[in-house]
Design a protein that fits this description.
The protein is an alpha/beta fold. It has 3 helices and 5 strands, in the order βββαβαβα.
Length: 124
């Protein structure tokens, strides 16, 4: 059982490599603070009914309805690791209590840093 979960936007499953407005695949990582371990619990694909989201030039991050779809699909996560995210989707996601972190690190390194932070702050 995990203490919290992290959603990492990743096409390759190794690094945080996707802009929020283009992300459709998330690695969902369960973290156990006591043992400082984690594992990928699932790969979450986000689909937008009735909308074709393809290519690299179509950013839907300013569409509040689509941001809400992402939030609903990832609502069991505390952190969202993303390569880039704008202020509007961050505000929408904040309503769902997400901590959005921009990074281009490998997922394992980013998770280690989050565990270190959570341990130092007591998960607050």
């Amino acid at each position: 059982m995990s203490d919290f979960k992290i959603a990492a936007a990743s096409k390759n499953g190794i690094s945080v490599d996707t802009h929020f407005g283009l992300a459709t695949l998330y690695q969902i990582i369960g973290v156990n603070l006591e043992s400082e371990t984690w594992e990928v619990e699932r790969v979450q694909e986000i689909e937008f009914p009735g909308t074709e989201v393809t290519g690299t030039t179509r950013c839907w991050g300013h569409d509040e309805e689509k941001v809400t779809v992402v939030a609903e699909n990832l609502k069991d996560c505390k952190y969202l690791l993303i390569s880039k995210i704008g202020p509007h989707p961050q505000r929408v996601l904040a309503r769902y209590n997400f901590e959005c972190l921009e990074t281009n690190m490998e997922i394992n390194e980013a998770v280690k840093k989050i565990i270190e932070f959570e341990t130092k702050t007591g998960g607050k």
